[in-house]
C-alpha cells in the first residue's frame, strides 16, 4: 500500500465525516471516469459527443468531471450517443 492509500485509510478510520465524503466523492469520480473512457474508446472528443447530444462541450466536461447528482436519463442518453448500453446494478 502506498503512502497516500495509508494516509486515506488512517484518516477514514479516525474521521467519519472524511470517510463519508471521500467514499461518495470517489464514486462520483468513478462514474465520470467511466463515461470519459467510453467516449475515448469511441474516438470522440467532448465537442463531437456534445453535437450528438445536442448540447455544449462544457456540459460534457461537467458530466465527466462532476458526475454527482447525474440523472439516469442523462446517463442513458450519454450511453446511446456512444452506441453503448447502460447497465445499473445494486449489490
Which helices and strands, and how do they pair?
Blueprint lengths: L2 H12 L1 H26 L4 H7 L4 H9 L6 H10 L10
Helix pairs in contact: 1-2, 3-4
Polypeptide structure, described:
There is one protein chain. By secondary structure, the protein is mainly α. It has one domain (3-81): lambda repressor-like DNA-binding domains (434 Repressor (Amino-terminal Domain)), CATH 1.10.260.40. 70% of the residues lie in helices and 0% in strands. It contains 5 helices and no strands. It has helices at 3-14, 16-41, 46-52, 57-65, 72-81. Helix 1 (3-14) packs across helix 2 and helix 3 (46-52) packs across helix 4 (57-65). The longest helix is centred in the N-terminal third of the chain and has 26 residues, at 16-41. It is elongated and about 45 Å long. The mean pLDDT is 86.
Give short descriptive properties of this protein:
single chain; 91 residues; mainly alpha; 434 Repressor (Amino-terminal Domain); 0% strand; elongated
What is the total tally of β strands? 0
**What is the assigned CATH homologous superfamily?**
lambda repressor-like DNA-binding domains
Question: Low-confidence parts, pLDDT < 50 over ≥5 residues?
Answer: none
CATH class: Mainly Alpha
Distance between the termini: 26 Å
Structural class: mainly alpha
Question: What fraction, in percent, of the residue positions are helical?
Answer: over 70%
CATH architecture: Orthogonal Bundle
Percentage of residues in DSSP E strands: under 5%
Order of helices and strands: HHHHH
In this structure, how is the largest beta sheet organized?
none
Q: How confident is the prediction overall: mean pLDDT?
A: 86
CATH third-level topology: 434 Repressor (Amino-terminal Domain)
Supply the number of structural domains: 1
- Rg estimate, integer Å: 16 Å
What is the overall shape?
elongated
Amino acid at each position: 500500500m502506498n503512502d497516500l492509500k495509508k494516509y486515506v485509510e488512517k484518516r477514514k478510520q479516525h474521521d467519519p465525516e472524511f470517510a463519508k465524503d471521500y467514499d461518495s466523492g470517489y464514486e462520483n469520480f468513478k462514474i465520470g471516469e467511466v463515461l470519459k473512457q467510453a467516449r475515448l474508446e469511441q474516438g470522440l472528443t467532448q465537442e463531437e459527443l456534445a453535437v450528438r447530444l445536442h448540447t455544449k462541450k462544457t456540459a460534457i466536461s461537467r458530466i465527466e468531471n462532476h458526475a454527482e447528482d447525474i440523472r439516469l436519463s442523462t446517463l442513458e442518453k450519454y450511453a446511446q450517443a456512444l452506441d453503448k448500453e447502460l447497465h445499473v446494478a445494486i449489490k
